[in-house]
């Protein structure tokens, strides 16, 4: 009840009530007091009357005395005294007339009779008629008694009256005092109760308000704000509620601002596009309190929007959306692109803009409305940002603005990412071109070096080859001639002594042996020369479409069996990691086989050397061959766990005649020839990576379409 | 009566090598070997060789007139006479040029004498009474 009144009204009411009680009490007491004063005046008047009556009695007594004395003594002065008394009596009686008119009239009557009689008596006594005088005096005394009696009665009655009036006044005063005490006590109690109630009606809602304010201050927007009554506290509660609403709005605005700035930062930080787009969609969905959101990307080539990424959407939905691009002019996104502004569908059921099947699919998942904002950068179409909601109805202006802002950011991100990608691609292209150039330069230098070395080698080989041919030929011939000599001597032998024949035979046998040695070493030298000459034989082999896996496998088997044939104790774990998708490539198979044999042979040698040198029985020699189709080229990796190649050796690896093997074990031409075959003949590369005591890995890359025509280095060797 | 073979090579030991390699055939009178140390000498002796010259073997790299020039000249003078080119540089270019100039065959050094003898046997005209017409016989 109290809360319906304003606090001012409550306080005014309280004060008024208390004032009223005070005034009423005061009025009452004043009236009582006035009544009592009036009573007291009456009582005083009564006492005056009583005094007058007593005075009258006394004067009458004087009068009687002096009259009696006059009658008896006939003294003149008695008569004067009597007259004086009579005047005084008359004055008293005059004064008593007003309060006691009837009694005074009766007294005057008796007095008159008394005076008359007393006068007669005086005359009688003067006349010495004593008897007559006495008789008259006696009669007069009867009236004087009546006068006395009447005066006595007046006094008595007035005294009684006065007594009664006093008693009454005292009682009335006592009652008034008692009543006033009760009234004061009641007023105090009532006032206290009223004050308590009023204070409580103010303090309780105030306390609740303070709690709410503290809650708000602490950032708790969900704090309960007391119901707003019609009073000032109600007004405060309403203000507080409004404040909270403002605060919520503010907080929402801040969240939006933060989200936008976060997105802006992300866009500015040139994060990868996927991250930025995820951020945009997630924030857009959260801040617009939607169910799901997604970004569609525009594909310029097909003139379609393709589903990009989503937030909150069901996996089944995203799968189905991914499978169905939307045409450039179709649907809500198309419309938003056309208008360049957000387009909303407040209710799928009533929309003619949406693609029907899409609307059905979304409605089937409980979505009711959507908002689409275009991703545009100047005139370039980049895609669309779509927000899905599970409730029907218009999107708030705020949400539309928000989603538009996000779309702008997203478009910017797409644009940035595109520029960034383009730049990166250009950079990569540049770097790749630069790398290619540098590699080409390096290989050109290397090739030049190798070519001149190769020419030199070929020249030397030619010069050696001719004399060597003679040596070999003549050695062979000499051997044949010795056979003929032996036969000739045999036919002559019958005539010769046995001893001489035995000696001849021995010499011939030694000669034959020597010639065999010459032939053998000549052949070896011839082999070396032939290897050397391979440097100069340009374009001998023909390119054929070849299965490199099969070629490598075959070479591996050949190399392995070759190594086993030379050293039956040799063993190695061979691993083949061949790319099954390796497409055939045009190469000169016998040359590539030669490269393989060289590299495998080296690997075998290195692992075996490590096994022998380390003396570690647990060491397991291993060689792995990996092939990979890299599209434009084919890569072959040959990795062994042998001794490895020291850096100083690596630099000279492909130099002709450079060998680390003991004399007679290697020509120093294997890698040189391999280099020629891979680099010069096939336009490929051969690189090596190694760690001493751990591994060596050769990587051969053969391009499918060599940039350079196969070099015919050293083909024009001067004679 | 055998047939003549002319070998043109600036290397003197080539003569000795051929003689020894063909000693049995020469002893049996199957072939007569003639040697010239240069292209010019080979051309000069072309008319005086007896008995019938059936083939010329020529090195390519020689000082003065080289084998290919000699080949061209012989083709001009004696188109029916087969010329076998011999060289240590058995590359495509030389092969092609030799073939274009009309060389009958191209032999790489070191010469495989067994192979050479087989080829010579093919060049020997059929026995008298055969279909092959042998000029100057």
Description of the structure:
The complex is a heterodimer of chains A (719) and B (137). The two termini of chain A are 131 Å apart. In chain A, the strands form three sheets. Chain A has a six-stranded antiparallel β-sheet with strand order 3-2-1-6-5-4, with helices on both faces. In chain A, 66% of the residues lie in helices and 12% in strands. The longest helix of chain A has 96 residues, at 397-492. Chain A is built from 15 helices and 13 strands. In chain B, 37% of the residues lie in helices and 20% in strands. Chain B has helices spanning 13-21, 23-27, 39-44, 67-77, 92-100, 113-123; strands spanning 3-8, 31-36, 53-59, 83-87, 105-108. The chains are: A alpha+beta (719), B alpha/beta (137). The interface between A and B is medium-sized, with 20 and 15 residues.
The residue fraction in helices of chain B comes out at 25-40%
Major sheet details of chain B: 5 strands, parallel
Strands of chain B, count: 5
Order of helices and strands of chain B: EHHEHEHEHEH
Structural class of chain A: alpha+beta
């Amino acid at each position: 009840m109290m809360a319906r009144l304003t606090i001012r009204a409550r306080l005014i009411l309280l004060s008024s009530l208390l004032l009223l009680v005070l005034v009423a009490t005061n009025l009452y007491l004043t009236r009582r007091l006035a009544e009592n004063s009036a009573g007291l005046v009456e009582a005083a008047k009564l006492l005056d009357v009583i005094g007058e009556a007593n005075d009258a009695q006394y004067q009458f007594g004087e009068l009687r005395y002096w009259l009696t004395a006059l009658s008896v003594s006939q003294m003149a002065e008695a008569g004067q005294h009597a007259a004086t008394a009579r005047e005084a009596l008359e004055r008293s009686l005059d004064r008593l007339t007003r309060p006691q008119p009837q009694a005074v009239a009766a007294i005057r009557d008796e007095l008159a009779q008394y005076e008359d009689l007393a006068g007669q008596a005086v005359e009688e006594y003067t006349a010495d008629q004593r008897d007559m005088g006495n008789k008259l005096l006696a009669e007069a005394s009867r009236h004087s008694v009546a006068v006395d009696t009447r005066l006595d009665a007046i006094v008595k009655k007035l005294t009684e009256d006065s007594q009664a009036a006093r008693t009454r006044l005292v009682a009335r005063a006592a009652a008034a005092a008692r009543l006033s005490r009760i009234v004061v006590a009641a007023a105090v109690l009532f006032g206290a109760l009223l004050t308590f109630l009023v204070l409580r009606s103010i303090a309780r809602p105030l306390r609740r308000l303070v709690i709410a304010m503290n809650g708000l201050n602490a950032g708790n927007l969900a704090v309960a704000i007391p119901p707003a009554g019609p009073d000032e506290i109600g007004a405060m509660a309403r203000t507080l509620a409004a404040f909270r609403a403002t605060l919520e709005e503010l907080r929402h605005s801040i969240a939006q601002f933060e989200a936008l700035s976060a997105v802006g930062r992300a866009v500015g930080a040139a994060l990868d596009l996927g991250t930025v787009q995820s951020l945009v969609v997630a924030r857009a969905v959260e801040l617009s309190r939607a169910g799901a959101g997604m970004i569609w990307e525009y594909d310029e080539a097909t003139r379609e929007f393709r589903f990009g990424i989503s937030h909150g959407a069901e996996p089944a939905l995203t799968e189905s959306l991914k499978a169905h691009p939307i045409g450039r002019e179709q649907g809500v996104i198309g419309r938003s692109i056309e208008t360049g502004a957000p387009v909303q569908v407040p209710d799928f059921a009533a929309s003619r803009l949406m693609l029907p099947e899409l609307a059905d699919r979304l409605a089937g998942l409980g979505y009711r409305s959507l908002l689409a904002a275009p991703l545009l950068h100047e005139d370039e179409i980049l895609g669309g940002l779509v927000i899905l909601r599970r409730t029907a109805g218009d999107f708030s202006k705020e949400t539309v603005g928000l989603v538009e802002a996000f779309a702008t950011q997203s478009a910017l991100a797409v644009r940035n990412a595109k520029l960034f990608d383009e730049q990166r691609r250009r950079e990569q292209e540049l770097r790749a071109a630069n790398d290619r150039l540098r590699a080409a330069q390096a290989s050109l230098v290397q090739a030049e070096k190798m070519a001149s070395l190769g020419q030199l080698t070929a020249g030397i080989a030619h010069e050696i080859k001719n004399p060597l041919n003679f040596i070999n030929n003549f050695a062979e011939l000499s051997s044949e001639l010795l056979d003929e000599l032996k036969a000739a001597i045999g036919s002559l032998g019958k005539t010769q002594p046995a001893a001489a024949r035995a000696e001849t035979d021995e010499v011939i046998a030694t000669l034959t042996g020597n010639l065999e040695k010459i032939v053998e070493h000549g052949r070896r030298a011839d082999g070396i020369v032939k290897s050397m000459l391979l440097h100069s034989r340009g374009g001998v082999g023909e390119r054929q479409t070849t299965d490199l896996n099969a070629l490598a496998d075959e070479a591996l088997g050949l190399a392995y069996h070759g190594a086993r044939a030379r050293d039956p104790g040799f063993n190695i774990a061979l691993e083949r990691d061949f790319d099954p998708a390796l497409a055939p490539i045009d190469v000169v198979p016998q040359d590539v086989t030669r490269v393989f044999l060289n590299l495998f042979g080296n690997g075998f040698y290195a692992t075996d050397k490590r096994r022998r040198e380390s003396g570690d029985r647990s060491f397991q020699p291993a060689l792995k061959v990996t092939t990979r189709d890299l599209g434009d080229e084919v890569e072959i990796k040959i990795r062994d766990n042998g001794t490895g190649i020291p850096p100083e050796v690596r630099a000279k690896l492909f130099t002709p005649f450079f060998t680390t093997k003991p004399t007679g074990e290697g020509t120093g031409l294997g890698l040189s020839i391999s280099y020629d075959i891979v680099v010069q003949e096939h336009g490929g590369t051969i690189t090596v990576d190694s760690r001493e005591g751990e591994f060596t890995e050769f990587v051969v890359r053969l391009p499918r379409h060599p940039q350079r025509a196969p070099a015919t280095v050293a083909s024009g060797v001067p004679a | 009566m055998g047939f003549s073979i002319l070998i043109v090579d600036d290397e003197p030991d080539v003569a000795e090598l051929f003689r020894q390699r063909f000693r049995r055939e020469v002893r049996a009178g199957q072939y007569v070997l003639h040697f010239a140390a240069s292209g010019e000498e080979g051309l000069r002796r072309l008319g005086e060789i007896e008995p019938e010259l059936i083939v010329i073997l020529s090195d390519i790299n020689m000082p003065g007139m080289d084998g290919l020039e000699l080949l061209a000249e012989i083709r001009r003078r004696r188109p029916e006479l087969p010329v076998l080119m011999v060289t240590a540089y058995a590359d495509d270019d030389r092969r092609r040029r030799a073939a274009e100039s009309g060389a009958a065959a191209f032999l790489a050094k070191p010469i495989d004498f067994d192979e050479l003898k087989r080829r010579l046997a093919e060049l020997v005209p059929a026995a008298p009474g055969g279909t092959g017409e042998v000029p100057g016989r």
